[in-house]
Amino acid sequence: MSTQVGNEDSVVIDVSGLTKEFGRTVALQGASLTVARGEIVVLLGLSGSGKSTLLRHLDGLETPTSGSVRVLGQEVPRLTGRRLRALRSRMGFVFQQFDLVPSLTVLENVLTGALSELRGPRIGLWSYPKRLKLTALGHLDRVGLLDRAYQRADTLSGGQQQRVAIARALMQDPEILLADEPVASLDPESSEQVMSLIREIAMDEGLTVVCSLHQVDLALSWGDRIVGLRHGEVVLDTPAEGLSKAEVMEIYGRVATSTTELEAIEVELSDAAADAAAETHLADGALRS
Ligand SMILES: Nc1ncnc2c1ncn2[C@@H]1O[C@H](COP(=O)(O)OP(=O)(O)OP(=O)(O)O)[C@@H](O)[C@H]1O
């Protein structure tokens, strides 16, 4: 199933027949997806269904086993060096773990988003041009954290840290924002706030967004379009409006015949998502220690 998107000029992401194998693991199996400029697309699917792998191909972080990945008119796997960096600079990436430098100030973290346009390393606020500092402060204001600019990043809450990561992504003035489980580590209230902020910025700036999520309700209320992945295949691709929760549950290979059953499946899926997020925390902790 595939949703038609506008004319050729408006297509900013065009993935066709994408297969990715990691040894004997097939992470993606002939996945196809086109995204029009300005669309807000959610990737949904069980842990291991291939959401991150798909996002990573869009940014050139993975090389396909077969198939085509075109972003902003360029075949991503063919790009290397300067040309790949140039394409990446037109895309922002937001991750579950925020990836801020904890000991640096909030403002310095935001400024690191501009490093690709600067030569050489930068140490300390003084080493950044004034115009970039003003831009960074503007983005911090946009995400509601101007008053935290000179605070260490690790003194902020999770939701605030993710807002800093969004401000950092905005430093690239991106056309596309890729977000991999941006709220998986956050409580429901902070999740809502962060997702609303992303949507608001995307609408204001005309950004195209592709975002993986675990939360079905949030996905339905937030996205323009839902793309469901199962075992690396696109099994659903449809506008979010009018889509029922029961239809979405079929992505997970589960069919609910009653509200009670639907609720039970939801609890099971949210437990599985929490387990996956906890595993990521543990793995990250092990890597950092
Ligand atoms: N670098 C890698 N090496 C080996 N296997 C990998 C690698 N990256 C992903 N995989 C495997 O590919 C499959 C898809 O993984 P992926 O991370 O894309 O799923 P996901 O839907 O994003 O899961 P989650 O919701 O838990 O983040 C999984 O079986 C995973 O173990």
From TrEMBL:
Keywords: ATP-binding, Cell membrane, Membrane, Nucleotide-binding, Translocase, Transport. Residues 13-256 form the ABC transporter domain. One of its GO terms (cellular component) is membrane. GO terms for molecular function: ABC-type phosphonate transporter activity; ATP binding; ATP hydrolysis activity. It comes from the Bacteria. PROSITE patterns: ABC_TRANSPORTER_1, ABC_TRANSPORTER_2. It holds the Pfam family ABC_tran. The keyword Translocase applies. NCBIfam families: ABC_phnC (TIGR02315). PANTHER family: AMINO ACID IMPORT ATP-BINDING PROTEIN, PHOSPHONATES IMPORT ATP-BINDING PROTEIN PHNC. This is Phosphonate ABC transporter ATP-binding protein.
